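Hi Y.,

Following your request, here is the sequence exactly as I used it, all 80 residues.
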Amino acid sequence: MRARGYAASHAQAKTAAHKNAPKRTKDGPPDLVYCPHTIAVYTRAGKPGVVYLAHRKYPETAALNPVAGLIDGIVADASK
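Below is the corresponding structure, written out as tokens. Let me know if you'd prefer a different format.
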């Protein structure tokens, strides 16, 4: 994983998430069930050197599409 790219992506996502929170809340109140937006990074015993990344897949809604794009980008960048 590239820590530098991940950190930059994380900062972008955090900024965008805070900036767009009022719009997401207004446009998609039922979508609040998907908060907080998380990415799990973990390892497993017996699999040394393997790092797993997991995150939710979001439904296609106007409120969640920007979030889904950011998270997909962070995961793609971190998995390089």
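The radius of gyration is 14 Å.

Thanks again,
Q.
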